[in-house]
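Target chain:
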Amino acid sequence: MPDFAASTVRMKVPEDAVSLPVRVPEADLHTWAAEAAARRVGPDGDPKLLGALAAELREAAADSRGRGPVTALSYVPEPRLGELARIELSALVADDTYPALTVDLLRRFLAAPTADSYRPPEAELRTLPAGPAVRVRHAYVRDVGRDGLGTIMETCAYGIRADETWGLVLLTSWQAPVHTDALCELTDELARTVRVTD
């Protein structure tokens, strides 16, 4: 068992977030999504809105489930607009290639430019209650069409070193650049709430 398996990881859940059932493989996503959409919209909500939000939440849960995070949230401040951002908290474990997890290793992992990078990543060191960390902002171009145009996906991530054998990655991703500052502030706030206990 990995060293982190005996630890408890906690993070505040924003008021407008829906917890995605990523750690419950037996959960029926159709039923769960319909119930989650009704809770977010209200029982008397417009059926079209309920259906659209349920479909989006179902897709978000399936997508996040595939990455196996510790927890995943769909941030939905305005249900009629759907998911504004996805928030995932994942564990990273040292291995034979990288036997010690360091903040520099987390920085290199999170701030590595890719072929899809829209602009160079911006990294800065931080100190959080859960441990030393690096904060990285990055933007990617996704779903590029034949015309060469694509969708900009922005991220704000924290790599948090819990100890020398494992760490956490808090990743918020979104496609609405008008909300970049607010979503980076939300990620900063959430990073300060991450706690690890044995």
